[in-house]
């Protein structure tokens, strides 16, 4: 496998290009986005989602627990 990637045949390079274009399209990014831009955008998305999760955690009310009733399986 390492030899294959080191040799980088044309069909493998084309497959990587197609995959990169598909991933960019899935994110709504242009196909020619640079690696640096990809990292910046992924970091921004990660920070945004982390902030959303933190906000959701702070506004979530704890669920009240109730005791087990006689004859009830939990």
Features:
0% strand, elongated, mainly alpha, 66% helix, 74 residues, 3 helices, single chain
Describe the protein's architecture and organization:
With 74 residues, this protein is an all-alpha fold. It has a domain at 30-57. The chain contains 3 helices and no strands. The chain has helices spanning 2-7, 10-27, 35-59. It is elongated and about 70 Å long. The termini are far apart.
In a few lines, what is going on in this structure?
The protein has 74 residues and is mostly helical.
Question: Overall mean pLDDT score?
Answer: 88
Provide a count of the helices. 3
Q: Strand share of the residues?
A: under 5%
Structural class of the helices, strands and pairings? Answer: mainly alpha
Low-confidence stretches: none
C-alpha termini separation: 51 Å
Total beta-strand segments: 0
Instruction: Give the oligomer, counting copies of the same chain as homo and different chains as hetero.
Output: single chain
Main β-sheet description = none
Label the overall shape. Answer: elongated
Radius of gyration: 23 Å
Q: Name the helix and strand elements from N-terminus to C-terminus, one letter apiece.
A: HHH
Give the proportion of residues in helices.
Answer: 55-70%
Secondary-structure blueprint:
Blueprint: H1 2-7, H2 10-27, H3 35-59
């Amino acid at each position: 496998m390492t030899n294959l990637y080191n040799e980088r045949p044309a069909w493998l390079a084309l497959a990587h290009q197609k995959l990169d274009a598909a991933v960019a399209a899935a994110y709504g990014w242009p196909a020619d986005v640079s690696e640096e831009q990809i990292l910046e955008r992924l970091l921004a998305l990660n920070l945004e989602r982390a902030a959303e999760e933190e906000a959701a955690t702070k506004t979530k009310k704890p669920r009240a627990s109730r005791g087990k009733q006689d004859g009830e399986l939990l």
